Amino acid sequence: MEETPSAEAEAESAANAPQKGTVTQRAIERIKAMIADGGLEPGQRLPTERDLAARLGISRSSMREAIRALTVLGVLEARHGSGIYVTQLEAGDLLETFGVVADLSRGPRLVELLEVRRILESTATALAAARITDDQLAEVEKHLTAMNATDDPEEILAHDLAFHREIAAAAGNETMAAMLEGLSSRTFRARVWRGYQEEGAFARTRREHAAIHRALVAHDPEAARAAAAAHVGEVEEWLRSQLRP
Amino acid sequence: MEETPSAEAEAESAANAPQKGTVTQRAIERIKAMIADGGLEPGQRLPTERDLAARLGISRSSMREAIRALTVLGVLEARHGSGIYVTQLEAGDLLETFGVVADLSRGPRLVELLEVRRILESTATALAAARITDDQLAEVEKHLTAMNATDDPEEILAHDLAFHREIAAAAGNETMAAMLEGLSSRTFRARVWRGYQEEGAFARTRREHAAIHRALVAHDPEAARAAAAAHVGEVEEWLRSQLRP
DNA sequence: GAGCCGTAGTGGTCGGACCACCTCCATGGT
DNA sequence: ACCATGGAGGTGGTCCGACCACTACGGCTC
């Protein structure tokens, strides 16, 4: 053991963690570790920025960057005038950034994302067919009829999203639902739809949604899986063909 | 849209976009929009922090926070002394944060993540069975035999990860491979293994890997899917049982 | 021509100052 | 005793200016 010259706490902890990268990066890891080790519980409030900075022996600016980084990751939440809190660390919080990935993807990667969505969506729909309750089914039907009752693309899209969101929720896996939410995020869907809807895809979409709904009512997982896979696969194939020329 | 920088374009655009949130948040959105709109190509270098800050009419500190945020998201890359660059926006870059989610998840969410992994991994393995080349197959075998040749848990885990990574790569969907990488990230796997291996799971794991390998050699997608699902499902069930009491 | 080296420019860090906002409690009225 | 009100303190948000660490590039030497 080395001598302990009654040094300051920051000097001590600084010695424990030699310079691996930037100061900010180290701060991020430290806070992440605190949460992973259970030192910080979900919903708990952190010390102030000034305290944290002093505790790790870094400036407030660097600490703020670290906090900002963990904020965009959905791990921390800063409330102006109140303090910094650990989020509930739920799927929705942590997977919010997933939508960013979808929004920034183009070309071949869009097809890949759609393929992932097809896999997850078909399984989620199959699970939902087995587990969905009457109340949840009523909610799904609400969006189905609302979607059929209008011709406004904006509204159709909104109910389309809600339709699938309700089904994903009924599947009983919040993590999967959150990922599907990201894969169907506003910008992502809107971008694809812009060109897709020009080919009279509304009628086909309505037919496919009806098929999915029938499978849910019948509580038939296999039929639901097939219907959902076909539904997403339809868009996927169209996108793939758009990419060819 | 971008205005031609005549005199006070930044003050003007700042006035056009009234306070939606924090200044930093707006800066993040602005840069994200620049990339999404094609104004910034992958690999391209951005103006300096000082320039960007002046351009958006904010301080360098705030701009730095915005850049840090986009850095942890895998969108930007800052090279000390050189400049800030847009990443290649490949799946690996953008989904790196996915591992953070896995590392910070506990309890029921771990099971949910494992369920997602089972779905993706089984599909990826099925795709790999149909598409895998002899070279890729040789690589898979390398890790299989290496894994069977040692008793060091550390080494076994490493080859286990590589085994699945090669298969995911052979599936031909980089996005899916990147997601699986995150779902199998070091900490995540190590944490589960710590307790799992105590029940003599090594032998079973080896048997299951052998089954997956056989299906790949036979180019039998259905067998591969079943073997992979069973493999992940095994751990999933164990974890589920650990959670019950 | 190859290699060295200094300089300019970049991101990284720091400390301090002020502002905007929230929280809490003492105050005073009912 | 209760509640509305207001102010004070504390918190995150923003800005500034300075300096450090590192990289890139060009001129210099050999």
TrEMBL record, chains A, B:
SMART domains: FCD, HTH_GNTR. Keywords: DNA-binding, Transcription, Transcription regulation. The keyword Chloroplast does not apply. It comes from the Bacteria. Coiled coil: none annotated. It holds the Pfam family FCD. CDD domains: WHTH_GntR (cd07377). Residues 1-23 are annotated as: Disordered. Residues 21-89 form the HTH gntR-type domain. Residues 1-11 have a biased composition (Acidic residues). Signal peptide: none annotated. InterPro entries: GntR_C, TF_FadR/GntR_C, Tscrpt_reg_HTH_GntR, WH-like_DNA-bd_sf, WH_DNA-bd_sf. This is FadR/GntR family transcriptional regulator. The lineage of its organism: Bacteria, Bacillati, Actinomycetota, Actinomycetes, Kitasatosporales.
